[in-house]
Structures are given as C-alpha cells and as structure tokens.
C-alpha cells in the first residue's frame, strides 16, 4: 500500500493535517510500505532596528522568493525581533513595506540572502534590517 500527499500544496510543510485522518492497518504478519513526502524547510530570524540600535516593533516585512515571486508577510515583535518558519531553500529578498517606511519617515535597504541545506539544517538567524531617518 502506498500513501502519498502533495506536500507542495501545503502552506506550511511543517503541518501535515491529512495524516491525522489516515490509518493503515496491516494484516497479520504483513508489512506495508508508507511513502511520506519530506519537504526541506527552515527558519529565518532577525531584527529590525533604528540607527541607534533600538528594535522597532509592529513593522510589516515582506519576504519574496526571487525565483518565482512568491511573497509572505510577517510582523516584528515589540523588540523588533522576527522569525518565520517553513522557509524553503532558495534566494530571497526581505523588505520593509513601503507604507511602514512612509509612516515612520525612514528608509531601509532590502536584504537579499540565500538559504541552502547545511549540516545544521536550513536557516538564517543573523538577518538585520536598519531603518535610517530620511531627514
């Protein structure tokens, strides 16, 4: 018996809701093969800070996959920290949304980076976006 799931259609590869409804009952003295798709994904984390080093909370960020244009949004915590799980290997751009830049009267260069599988997994924890005053 072969059970498969199209994991590419899942919003987060860390969630597999259909397996909760699947049951496999092998007959006595029999073995069954179960094909479970594995999608490599990791986590990104970092901070949004002002020029003085203080974190800025409530900032909306957009993560764009540079290969296919897929976008995901996230918002910083009160201390300016952020994280996002389920990020697949690839080339990305992380930017502060234009409305936030206008509201705070600041500029921020988009951050470009790549994620690739390593011996320690997939992820980046050193991402930092600096907000610079316009005036």
How would you explain this protein's 3D organization?
With 135 residues, this protein is mainly beta. The chain has one helix at residues 98-104; strands at residues 42-50, 60-65, 71-75, 81-87, 90-96, 106-107, 111-115, 123-133. The strands form two sheets. Strands 4-1-8-6 form a four-stranded mixed beta sheet, with helices on one face. The chain starts with 41 loop residues before the first strand and ends with a strand.
* Class computed from helices, strands and strand pairing: mainly beta
Helix content: under 10%
Radius of gyration: 20 Å
Number of strands: 8
Order of helices and strands: EEEEEHEEE
Question: Which parts are unreliable, with pLDDT below 50 for 5 consecutive residues or more?
Answer: 1-10, 12-20
Task: Draw up the topology in text.
Blueprint: E1 42-50, E2 60-65, E3 71-75, E4 81-87, E5 90-96, H1 98-104, E6 106-107, E7 111-115, E8 123-133
Parallel strand pairs: 1-8
Antiparallel strand pairs: 1-4, 2-3, 2-5, 5-7, 6-8
